[in-house]
Amino acid sequence: MADTTVKLSEVEHVKDASNYLRGTLAESIVTPLTGALNPDDTHLIKFHGSYQQTDRDLDSERKRQKLEPLYSLMIRVRLPGGVASSAQWERMDALADEYGNGTLKLTTRQAFQLHGVLKRNLKKTIQGFNDVLLDSIAGCGDVNRNVMFNPNPHQSQVHAEVYEISKAISAHLTPRTSAYWELWLNGESKHNSLLSAGGDDEPIYGKTYLPRKFKIALAVPPHNDTDIFANDLGLIAIEEKGKLLGFNVTVGGGMGMTFGMLDTYPRLGDIIGYVPADKVVDVCEKVVTIQRDWGNRENRKFSRLKYTLDRVGLEVFKQELNQRLGFELEPARAYEFKSSGDAFGWTTGPDGAQHLTLFVEGGRVADRPGQQLKTALREIARFHTGDFRLTGNQNLILANVAPEHRILVEATLAQHGIQVAATQYSGLRRGALACVALNTCSLAFAEAERYIPQLVDRLDGVLAELGLLQDDILIRMTGCPNGCARPYLGEIGLVGRAVGRYNLYLGAGFNGERMNKLYKEMLDEDGIVEALTPLLQDYAQKRQPQERFGDFVIRQGYVQPTTHGLNFHA
Ligand code: SRM
Ligand code: SF4
């Protein structure tokens, strides 16, 4: 099935020649003449969890002054299931201040990001992670990324079991190269399970790794809070009487596309069958190896599993998977998803443990006038005996709060201007997702995280007049079509086209099972508000009981439903 006549992309050659992801990183990182890395190393550093970036707010001024751009590194810490201890939180908080830009970003895949790390500080930053058993290997790059799962295993016994499986999948698919600990940790890792193997053999990936990034998410119905259909591989837990049986398997999800290239498209995963729980890690490995062997290594725009699948056909893919597994997937089992968002405020688990889900706007943990979230969480980390759980919706759960700490948690938050209940925010704001975009993302055409609060302020005005302020409506914004905030799963999706201009997409399902459709192009803020106001008015008047906004705009004929990635542009 692999085509040996293809002209490999440049990145394939870089990986091939890199000696298992080393390249010339050791030299690049210490060269004092520039803040940048050697060009080939900019590809390799991703596998170590980092991206070279510039401060785009300063690019033109620095160019005018004939200075090189202000290079720095973004670094992403993988956390399977988004779980961090208090000690790990405190460390990330401190590293953000010491080497980063003083903020922590909670990503849409339940990871931490630091921005603005100068290359001379990268090693010290990674060593800081290692001290508290965190790492950034495979945070980015052509490998399996952070494995997503509902961040609260204490919700039920099934959640606890699925969390363990998500960690097992993550560990199984972590690259084995010793380059990471050799380059950053002087050959010594505190992370026994992960990096002590020390060999360069990559039994799953091989020396050129995957053709492109690969993403896995797990979910326990009825909550699709990891948007599993947006992943290359999704696993839907099937339980019976509170016991985990196995998983329905989805393949071929992905959000990215390129404007003007209709043969690129976001796509939701297809359900291909059911697998018992004890065989699920093997299924993940075999799907990864098929993509390793069959994925497009010529043109990175078509390298994701979704394009492999649409090229070879789902049936051929399933046959190959069954053959590599040595057994057949069973028919998929019944399940139902009802939502893809987070439930805010205090909850009590079946074991009586207390958990607090906090709204974190844009996933940015920062101190702002009147709201010192970063300080509040640091103070909480000093006494909190439970842990911190990052959600796939860029929010945060303080999990397992000791009963005697509940009042102290609330008081600490209140003292720093953070309210526990999220009802002071509109339903639109609570469910909003926005990618980083400017000023650090090199691919952004427009603002997202920095701008969405202002847009929601205006839309909240419209919603308030219509009595819809507390209705949950999913809005998602990105600065480009790559889809980092999964905008095509927003009931309202806004995708940056140019500075201050967005394409407006409508009609996604509230439960993450249907993508939206282009409604209007190149809108500025007034255009967005003008386009949405009559629809929201109509919704307030004519919606049926419990009808979601995404379903309503389809029933009213504003947009056609998207039934498959292949008709997303239709
Ligand atoms: Fe993403 C590239 C940020 C989740 C699809 N993404 C980037 C880069 C690294 C830009 C770059 O290549 O230079 C962004 C760094 C910005 C910055 O300054 O930090 C970036 N992506 C993010 C994060 C931080 C957004 C956020 O605000 O939370 C998310 C980090 C997740 C993590 O912890 O691993 C993030 N990115 C996603 C998701 C959502 C998801 O995975 O559920 C997607 C859509 C799903 C998918 O992969 O299809 C996503 N990011 C992309 C793509 C398009 C990939 C494609 O094959 O279509 C790119 C561009 C690329 O890879 O060439 C990209
Ligand atoms: Fe950057 Fe585009 Fe991803 Fe936003 S969606 S972080 S602008 S790559």
TrEMBL record:
<dbReference type="GO" id="GO:0020037">
    <property type="term" value="F:heme binding"/>
</dbReference>
<dbReference type="GO" id="GO:0004783">
    <property type="term" value="F:sulfite reductase (NADPH) activity"/>
</dbReference>
<dbReference type="GO" id="GO:0009337">
    <property type="term" value="C:sulfite reductase complex (NADPH)"/>
</dbReference>
<feature type="domain" description="Nitrite/Sulfite reductase ferredoxin-like">
    <location>
        <begin position="73"/>
        <end position="127"/>
    </location>
</feature>
<keyword id="KW-0521">NADP</keyword>
<comment type="function">
    <text>Component of the sulfite reductase complex that catalyzes the 6-electron reduction of sulfite to sulfide. This is one of several activities required for the biosynthesis of L-cysteine from sulfate.</text>
</comment>
<feature type="binding site">
    <location>
        <position position="441"/>
    </location>
    <ligand>
        <name>[4Fe-4S] cluster</name>
    </ligand>
</feature>
<feature type="domain" description="Nitrite/sulphite reductase 4Fe-4S">
    <location>
        <begin position="168"/>
        <end position="327"/>
    </location>
</feature>
<dbReference type="GO" id="GO:0019344">
    <property type="term" value="P:cysteine biosynthetic process"/>
</dbReference>
<keyword id="KW-0349">Heme</keyword>
<dbReference type="GO" id="GO:0050311">
    <property type="term" value="F:sulfite reductase (ferredoxin) activity"/>
</dbReference>
<feature type="binding site" description="axial binding residue">
    <location>
        <position position="484"/>
    </location>
    <ligand>
        <name>siroheme</name>
    </ligand>
</feature>
<keyword id="KW-0560">Oxidoreductase</keyword>
<dbReference type="Pfam" id="PF03460">
    <property type="entry name" value="NIR_SIR_ferr"/>
</dbReference>
<dbReference type="InterPro" id="IPR006066">
    <property type="entry name" value="NO2/SO3_Rdtase_FeS/sirohaem_BS"/>
</dbReference>
<dbReference type="GO" id="GO:0051539">
    <property type="term" value="F:4 iron, 4 sulfur cluster binding"/>
</dbReference>
<keyword id="KW-0408">Iron</keyword>
<keyword id="KW-0479">Metal-binding</keyword>
<dbReference type="Pfam" id="PF01077">
    <property type="entry name" value="NIR_SIR"/>
</dbReference>
<comment type="pathway">
    <text>Sulfur metabolism; hydrogen sulfide biosynthesis; hydrogen sulfide from sulfite (NADPH route): step 1/1.</text>
</comment>
<feature type="binding site">
    <location>
        <position position="435"/>
    </location>
    <ligand>
        <name>[4Fe-4S] cluster</name>
    </ligand>
</feature>
<protein>
    <recommendedName>
        <fullName>Sulfite reductase [NADPH] hemoprotein beta-component</fullName>
        <ecNumber>1.8.1.2</ecNumber>
    </recommendedName>
</protein>
<comment type="subunit">
    <text>Alpha(8)-beta(8). The alpha component is a flavoprotein, the beta component is a hemoprotein.</text>
</comment>
<feature type="domain" description="Nitrite/Sulfite reductase ferredoxin-like">
    <location>
        <begin position="351"/>
        <end position="414"/>
    </location>
</feature>
<keyword id="KW-0198">Cysteine biosynthesis</keyword>
<keyword id="KW-0411">Iron-sulfur</keyword>
<dbReference type="GO" id="GO:0000103">
    <property type="term" value="P:sulfate assimilation"/>
</dbReference>
<feature type="binding site">
    <location>
        <position position="480"/>
    </location>
    <ligand>
        <name>[4Fe-4S] cluster</name>
    </ligand>
</feature>
<keyword id="KW-0028">Amino-acid biosynthesis</keyword>
<keyword id="KW-0004">4Fe-4S</keyword>
<dbReference type="InterPro" id="IPR045169">
    <property type="entry name" value="NO2/SO3_Rdtase_4Fe4S_prot"/>
</dbReference>
<dbReference type="InterPro" id="IPR045854">
    <property type="entry name" value="NO2/SO3_Rdtase_4Fe4S_sf"/>
</dbReference>
<dbReference type="GO" id="GO:0046872">
    <property type="term" value="F:metal ion binding"/>
</dbReference>
<dbReference type="InterPro" id="IPR006067">
    <property type="entry name" value="NO2/SO3_Rdtase_4Fe4S_dom"/>
</dbReference>
<dbReference type="InterPro" id="IPR005117">
    <property type="entry name" value="NiRdtase/SiRdtase_haem-b_fer"/>
</dbReference>
<dbReference type="GO" id="GO:0070814">
    <property type="term" value="P:hydrogen sulfide biosynthetic process"/>
</dbReference>
<dbReference type="GO" id="GO:0050661">
    <property type="term" value="F:NADP binding"/>
</dbReference>
<comment type="similarity">
    <text>Belongs to the nitrite and sulfite reductase 4Fe-4S domain family.</text>
</comment>
<feature type="binding site">
    <location>
        <position position="484"/>
    </location>
    <ligand>
        <name>[4Fe-4S] cluster</name>
    </ligand>
</feature>
<dbReference type="InterPro" id="IPR036136">
    <property type="entry name" value="Nit/Sulf_reduc_fer-like_dom_sf"/>
</dbReference>
<dbReference type="InterPro" id="IPR011786">
    <property type="entry name" value="CysI"/>
</dbReference>
